[in-house]
């Protein structure tokens, strides 16, 4: 028999040529979907065939040259995976067939009663029952897994949830059955988000992504969720299955890694990479919306002397103490970044020239008026400027550096402000 695309593959384990020919003839006359028959004569050969190939069903004679009776079925089940087994018996072996079913066979067929319709129908039902049993075992295993599972009907009413769902959300199955999953919505996503989700489900029968939901206790949490539409044999959606797991720890680790990648380890300020991003964003806002933005660059006066005479440990403590004092004096939207060595830059959104100069003077006093442990009085010099209409990052930083240099020239422990050249030619410190 030739295999077709929709063919069921059947392994016949039968040592009698006459009985094998009878089964083959019956299958050829069957009106069931095409059945591709492979025959072996011994149990050992059957086990070998199943180790090499996949079969949908096995017609198993219990009286073989190398195995007899129910021990044949037991050994077969021990050494093979899940496959539909239909036992072939003699006319007088009905009790044997019944016991075979009790041991796990899908059905039995007395050889003397075989008809094309009976053998074809029995094999089809056996295959379908075996597949259903496998699917049920798979579903049971999934429901016992660490992944939360939620099943709804086509109208979105919850029908089943598993223990992992209860563990993550706090809701028991009794509390949610018949309700809509929107009881979990956190308010973190807008209507457009859910419109996109359902749009993708309607087109592709699947959606997967990160979503924030709310537990029964009111706390929100992130999860990674996969939703699949389940269709019946007529192509109609019958159920939706959502599988998800909480990713709070993953998000925490991601945030920690991102923080480490953008933070100076010694001072806890933004590093150069983070500063570049913040400056680009500030410039973009300034040029698009005209948002007043100022910058301050400062460094420690005579810092090399601290390192050379007091040691690098003291120098590090001085840097940390100075940046802590500066950080305590600025606002939440302001960005404090380590530019390099003992140089630092502040980005000050919504700040004009006067505001920036006033802040710079406060910072100078905050650092210089109180001694630093093991280092005495420390002073800083500060350069100040604001964004101008012709500025890019290079021109802005060059002017800021010039302002700091001028402050050093004026004797240190002072503030120097430079106005953008494109706005005003006068420069003043």
TrEMBL record:
Pfam families per the UniProt record, alphabetical: GGDEF, PAS_9, Response_reg
Domain Response regulatory residues, every copy: 9-126
Gene3D superfamilies xref list: 3.30.70.270, 3.40.50.2300, PAS domain
CDD domains found in the cross-reference section: GGDEF, PAS
Sequence intervals crossing the membrane: none
Gene Ontology biological process terms from the UniProt entry: phosphorelay signal transduction system
Domain GGDEF: 291-420
Ranges for domain PAC: 207-259
Entry cofactors: Mg(2+)
4-aspartylphosphate: residues bearing it: 61
InterPro entries: CheY-like_superfamily, DGC-Regulatory_Protein, GGDEF_dom, Nucleotide_cyclase, PAC, PAS, PAS-assoc_C, PAS-like_dom_sf
Protein name from the UniProt record: PAS domain S-box-containing protein/diguanylate cyclase (GGDEF) domain-containing protein
Species of the source: Thiohalospira halophila DSM 15071
Organism placement in taxonomy: Bacteria, Pseudomonadati, Pseudomonadota, Gammaproteobacteria, Thiohalospirales
């Amino acid at each position: 028999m030739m295999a077709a695309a929709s063919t069921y593959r059947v392994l016949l384990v039968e040592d009698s040529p006459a009985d094998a020919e009878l089964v083959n003839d019956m299958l050829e006359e069957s009106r069931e979907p095409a059945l591709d028959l492979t025959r072996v004569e011994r149990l050992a050969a059957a086990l070998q065939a199943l180790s090499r190939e996949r079969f949908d069903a096995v017609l198993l004679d219990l009286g073989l040259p190398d195995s007899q009776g129910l021990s044949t079925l037991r050994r077969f089940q021990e050494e093979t995976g899940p496959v539909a087994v239909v036992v072939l018996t003699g006319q007088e072996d009905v009790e044997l067939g019944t016991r075979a079913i009790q041991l796990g066979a899908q059905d039995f067929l007395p050889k003397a009663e075989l008809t094309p319709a009976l053998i074809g129908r029995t094999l089809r039902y056996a295959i379908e029952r075996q597949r259903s049993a496998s699917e049920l075992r798979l579903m049971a295993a999934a429901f016992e897994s660490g992944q939360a599972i939620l099943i709804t009907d086509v109208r979105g009413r919850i029908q089943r949830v598993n223990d992992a769902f209860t563990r993550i959300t706090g809701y028991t199955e009794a509390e949610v059955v018949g309700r809509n999953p929107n009881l979990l919505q956190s308010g973190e996503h807008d209507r457009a988000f859910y419109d996109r989700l359902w749009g993708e489900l309607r087109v592709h029968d699947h959606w997967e992504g990160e979503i924030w939901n709310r537990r029964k206790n009111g706390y929100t949490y992130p999860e990674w969720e996969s939703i699949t539409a389940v269709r019946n044999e007529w192509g109609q959606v019958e159920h939706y299955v959502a599988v998800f797991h909480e990713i709070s720890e993953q998000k925490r680790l991601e945030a920690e890694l991102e923080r480490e990648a953008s933070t100076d380890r010694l001072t806890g300020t933004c590093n150069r990479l983070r500063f570049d991003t913040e400056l680009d964003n500030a410039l973009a806002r300034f040029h698009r919306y005209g948002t007043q933005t100022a910058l301050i660059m400062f460094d420690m006066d005579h810092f090399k002397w601290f390192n050379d005479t007091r040691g690098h440990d003291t120098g590090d403590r001085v840097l940390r103490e100075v940046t802590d004092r500066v950080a305590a004096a600025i606002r939440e939207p302001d960005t404090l970044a380590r530019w390099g060595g003992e140089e630092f830059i502040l980005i000050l959104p919504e700040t004009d020239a006067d505001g920036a100069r006033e802040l710079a003077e406060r910072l100078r006093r905050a650092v210089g008026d109180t001694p630093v442990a093991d280092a005495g009085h420390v002073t800083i010099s500060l350069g100040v400027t604001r964004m101008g209409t012709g500025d890019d990052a290079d021109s802005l930083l060059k002017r800021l550096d010039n302002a700091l240099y001028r402050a050093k020239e004026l004797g240190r422990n002072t503030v120097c402000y430079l106005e953008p050249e494109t706005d005003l030619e006068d420069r003043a410190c």
